[in-house]
Amino acid sequence: xxxxxxxxxxxxxxxxxxxxxxxxxxxxxxxxxxxxxxxxxxxxxxxxxxxxxxxxxxxxxxxxxxxxxxxxxxxxxxxxxxxxxxxxxxxxxxxxxxxxxxxxxxxxxxxxxxxxxxxxxxxxxxxxxxxxxxxxxxxxxxxxxxxxxxxxxxxxxxxxxxxxxxxxxxxxxxxxxxxxxxxxxxxxxxxxxxxxxxxxxxxxxxxxxxxxxxx
Length: 215
Description:
Blueprint: E1 5-10, H1 14-25, E2 30-36, H2 39-43, E3 53-56, H3 65-75, E4 80-85, H4 90-98, E5 103-106, H5 111-122, E6 127-128, H6 130-139, H7 148-152, H8 156-166, H9 171-178, H10 182-196, H11 201-207
Parallel strand pairs: 1-2, 1-3, 3-4, 4-5, 5-6
């Protein structure tokens, strides 16, 4: 008898969670072991080590799905985590990949497409919605250097923020280091992206020699 895939579902929207639960509870390939509405609830389960896969939303109350992925992948590297989200911006995609996600699917995917993706991951593959795969491919295409005028127009505070980004700090850490609010950091980052003509911190990292932002 073929072993069933032990699946967990983390989704904070009740209607979506119920739809996913009903679908996979009646699927002979899966054994639904965990359903939860936030990361903290997932961490309360004792049988996380027994899970094969976790279908994980990103935007959650409390810890985000990406934060949870970092925690679980560190402790349970065998666990396959597939992000299931509405987000298709570069920062979320590459944060998820860095956290060890085995797949990244948009909620526009049908249940049949979702099921196939989970089976592909279980078979050793990876899964991405076509729009996400396209963004990942575009990311690795050659890019032009940052515009000199954009770099010159940065304020000293903005250059400091860029240096923190290049050091790998997230927005919360940067806010703490600079003793300003996280909303202020996000506002400045939007201005930085516009001046430097980039769309994400990963594009910024690829095109930014650190010496351009020295004090």
